[in-house]
Amino acid sequence: MNTVTICFTNNKGGSGKSTTCSNVGAAMARMGKKVLLVDGDMQLNLSLSFFPEEEVLRMAKSDKNLYQAVTKQRDLTDDIVHTPYPNLDLVPSSILMSSIEYELFTKWQREFILKKCLKNIRESGTYDFILIDAPPTLGGWVLNILCASDQVLVPVEASPWGMFGLANMFDFLEEVKELAPQLRVMGIVVTKADVRKTYFRQTMETLKEMDGIRLLDTVIRVDSTIEWSQDNSEPVVEFRKSSRSAKEYTELAEEVMKLCQ
């Protein structure tokens, strides 16, 4: 199997993107897949899922991170760090990512810079999956991430605000496909769901009615264990393997892998 690159994106913050990306990656690695995570967000949440804050800030300020590689348009291989878990590596982010749009603006073929930075890694076949956590925007940097990806997964929070801006997101994805014809929308995964609430059922019904968009079978429910795992700088599938959310993320990882075949 060739390396599959999946982007986790939603232009709305708080959708559970970084948590979903980190746990799907960790669950895949537990199943023996080789996974590279790429932290594309200046909030550093994906990096914080695996390393304590002081370590993440040290990487963010060093010359080995995503920002340095993209602005210098260099191969990302040397920016990879090993996480504490087998089969699972990370390209850390930088606080300077906040200025990445400005940095990209004058560059030639700026939409494809990340794709070029990942080219050697993809062609080496070292990894089964590359998972990229995108920031909650619809700008040139997210366009870059999408142009480097094969699949897009959109985590959506099951709340009154969770659906806001979703139509814009999918319009944007349709436009991106003109630049990146390889891109496939895997679908939507519902996160932070409280299945007892009426609004959860309404959200599910609305999403099922979206034309041509797959709603994944796995639903990630609200679980305080996720917050404890984040406080511990561990993905929940490693922090408490017996927890409900660990099982749900493992099911989601299996569903994602199946949809990539």
Identify the notable features of this structure and list them briefly.
261 residues, alpha/beta, Rossmann fold, 12 helices, 8 strands
Would you mind describing this structure in some detail?
It is a single chain. The protein has one domain: P-loop containing nucleotide triphosphate hydrolases (Rossmann fold). 44% of the residues lie in helices and 17% in strands. It has 12 helices and 8 strands. The protein has helices at residues 17-30, 45-48, 53-61, 66-72, 100-105, 113-124, 140-147, 166-179, 198-208, 224-231, 236-239, 244-260; strands at 4-8, 35-39, 81-82, 88-91, 129-133, 151-157, 184-193, 215-221. It has an 8-stranded mixed β-sheet, sandwiched between helices. The longest helix has 17 residues, at 244-260. The chain is globular and about 50 Å long. The protein starts with a strand and ends with a helix. The model has no long low-confidence stretch (mean pLDDT 92).
Look at the helices and sheets and give the structural class.
alpha/beta
Largest sheet: 8 strands, mixed
For the largest sheet, list the strands in their spatial order.
Answer: 3-4-2-5-1-6-7-8
Task: Just give the CATH class.
Answer: Alpha Beta
Domains, number: 1
Termini gap: 9 Å
Number of strands: 8
Task: State the helicity in percent bands.
Answer: 40-55%
The appropriate CATH architecture is 3-Layer(aba) Sandwich
Radius of gyration: 17 Å
Number of helices: 12
Q: Which stretches of 5+ consecutive residues score pLDDT under 50? A: none
Identify the overall geometry. globular
SSE string, helix = H, strand = E? EHEHHHEEHHEHEHEHEHHH
CATH homology superfamily? P-loop containing nucleotide triphosphate hydrolases
β-strand percent reads 15-25%
Oligomeric assembly: single chain
What's the average pLDDT? 92
CATH topology name = Rossmann fold
